[in-house]
Every structure is written in C-alpha cells, then in structure tokens.
TrEMBL record:
Record domain RlpA-like protein double-psi beta-barrel: where: 40-124
Species per Swiss-Prot/TrEMBL record: Paenimyroides marinum
Enzyme class: lyase
GO molecular function, one term: lytic endotransglycosylase activity
Name listed for the protein in its UniProt record: Probable endolytic peptidoglycan transglycosylase RlpA
One Pfam family it belongs to: DPBB_1
UniProt GO BP: cell wall organization; peptidoglycan metabolic process
UniProt record similarity statement: Belongs to the RlpA family.
C-alpha cells in the first residue's frame, strides 16, 4: 500500500511539472504590440463574405482584420477609456482607412465599447502567447 501511494505521488508530480495544459483556451502571457491606436468595426454588409484567409465572415464571432499580423494570431484588444478587453483572432486584411489599426467584428467592438454609437475606439493591442 505504501509503495502504491509513493508511485501515485511521483506520477502526480511528474504530470504537474512536465504536462502542458490547454488552459481552457485562455492565454497567460501577453506582449504589447501597439498602444493608443484606433479600432473600428465591420459593416453588416460583409456578413457571409469570404475573409482573406478563406473563412466566412460573421459579425457574431470574435474576429478582426489587420494589415500585417499573421492569420490566426490572437490579439487582446483593450479599450483605453474603460479598460474592457476582448480577445480576437486575425482572419482578414484591413482596415484600409488611414488612421485605423484594426477592424473588429461588431461582437468584439460591442464587448469593449463605452458608447454603442461610437464608430471607433482608442485601444491598446497585445499579442497573446501561451
């Protein structure tokens, strides 16, 4: 019985020290990408259209467009005014309007907005690392 208990303890310790957990899709580390830039959101007319990476766009998903970040990159977008944040996945290119850094889905934009009538938000962008 004592030997079984010892083996169990060793296995638990080995698992905790060497196994990587999925962390339920949550990321623990971020690195600042850009501070004090502007974000806007997609118009509903883009729903159902293909994004640059081939996905079908939906304003009901947490996605975004960026001019240069790799597709699949997870970005934490924080509204500087109210400190609310959301994590989006880059799946498209844009925005192509001068002065805008990232184009969010409407769901992502609404999740961090301090004013539902706002057309753009002052945000901080952080790259998510696991």
């Amino acid at each position: 019985m004592n030997l079984r208990y010892s083996i169990f303890i060793i296995l638990v310790l080995v698992c905790f020290t060497s196994c990587k957990t999925a962390n339920s899709g949550k990321y623990t580390k971020t690195s600042l990408y850009k501070n004090e830039v502007f974000a806007c959101y997609y118009h509903n007319k883009f729903n159902g259209r293909k994004t640059a990476n081939g996905d079908t766009f939906s304003n009901n998903k947490l996605t975004a467009a960026h001019k240069s970040l790799n597709f699949g990159t997870k970005v934490k977008v924080t509204n500087i005014k109210n400190n609310k944040s959301v994590i989006v996945t880059i799946n498209d290119r844009g925005p192509f309007t001068k002065g805008l850094e990232i184009d969010l889905s409407k769901k992502a934009f609404d999740a961090i907005s301090h004013d539902k009538k706002a057309g753009k938000l002052h945000v901080k962008l952080e790259l998510m690392n696991d």
